[in-house]
Design brief:
nucleotide-binding, antibiotic resistance, about 30% strand, 2 domains, Rossmann fold, Alpha-Beta Plaits, binds magnesium ion, ABC_transporter_ATP-binding, binds adenosine-5'-triphosphate, ATP binding, 6-stranded mixed sheet, transport, 11 helices, alpha/beta
């Protein structure tokens, strides 16, 4: 359920993540540039944005793996490093290999031993959907199984906050859906979940809220419906025999026109005016469809580089 607007994190709610004016540069690259991000406990938040937008750098700072150059980063009411040290944060990172020369069970046991109140190893493996892989060597796993082992490792400390950097990258469709069901179960069990993804439909399906990053800054933050509403534009699609794209793009209410096989697609500023104009100038237009902006449109519009 998306949170109601007045249900957003306020000072009275416990904040899992509280970033205020956070910046982080690597040499001359400003990976994160003045980021404000507050996530309440219990929220499921997707971090979206093009390659290089600063998602992993942001998650690395949540995990205390790197520090902000400026601004303040708090996690679960303390410093990120402290929250991680006390086992209150679990993570699946974008890079890094599993420890070799051990079995899956031994690896998860090792991690459990680092925590004060871990889950049982069998419990963590079962939740991650790999109860049958306990005695398998970590070097003898498929890509999807490796992701599930990483998930078990993230889970075994019984964390309040789960941080997942593209957890389903490189998984097939069925494995992705299965892992998301597992993650959703963890959200229902009350864990706070912050994940980065490039799959817009995953963000749409599994997050309460989407934070869209571009050039190290938040360019949009809210429930999916708010984001798609933010771009306003609607699309009108029709079959227009002998279509003249220049003439169509000059119609009132139309921003641009493009050909898609037999059909034309009109990106509109005002789809009602565009539809009336289309029918009055070309009565042979048929198979007309008007659709609202979808998440892909919103993503592209909101993350586009500003004109120079
Ligand atoms: N260790 C590093 N040294 C130098 N530059 C870095 C380093 N890590 C990240 N960067 C740069 O910082 C910017 C943000 O990178 P980051 O990995 O946070 O992006 P991202 O949103 O996670 O991208 P992707 O979708 O490709 O995973 C990029 O320009 C990247 O090249
Ligand atoms: Mg990344």
């Amino acid at each position: 359920m998306p949170p109601a607007p007045d249900d957003r994190p306020g000072p009275s709610r416990n904040l899992a993540v509280d970033f205020c004016g956070v910046s982080r540069s690597y040499g001359r690259v400003r990976a994160v540039a003045g980021l404000d991000l507050r996530i309440a406990e219990g929220e499921v938040v997707a971090l979206l944005g093009p390659n290089g937008a600063g998602k992993s750098t942001t998650l690395d700072m949540v995990l205390g793996l790197t520090d902000p150059d400026t601004g303040t980063a708090r996690v679960l009411g303390t410093t990120p490093a402290d929250a991680v040290r006390h086992g209150r944060v679990g993570a699946v990172l974008q890079t890094g290999e599993l420890l070799p020369h051990v079995t899956v069970g031994e690896l998860v046991e090792l991690v459990a031993a680092l925590h004060d109140r871990p889950l049982g190893v069998d419990d963590a493996l079962r939740t991650a959907g790999i109860g049958d892989l306990r005695s398998r060597r970590t070097t003898a796993l498929s890509g999807g199984q490796v992701q599930r082992v990483r998930f078990a490792v993230a889970l075994v400390g019984d964390p309040v906050l789960l941080v997942l950097d593209e957890p389903t990258a490189s998984l097939d469709v069925a494995s992705r859906a299965a892992l998301w069901e597992t993650i959703r179960g963890q959200a229902q069990a009350g864990r706070t979940i912050l994940f980065a993804t490039h799959h817009l439909e995953e963000a749409d399906t599994y997050a309460d809220r989407i934070v869209l990053l571009a050039r190290g800054q938040v360019v949009a933050d809210g429930p999916v419906t708010e984001l798609t509403g933010a771009t306003r534009g609607r699309t009108l699609r029709a079959t227009v025999p002998g279509a003249d794209l220049d003439r169509l793009s000059a119609l009132p209410g139309v921003r641009t026109a493009e050909a898609r096989g037999e059909a034309v697609v009109l990106h509109c500023t005002d789809s009602d005016r565009a539809l009336r104009a289309l029918l009055s100038t070309g009565p042979s237009a048929r198979d007309i469809e008007v659709t609202g902006a979808d998440l892909t449109d919103a993503f592209l519009a909101l993350t586009a580089d500003p004109p120079r």
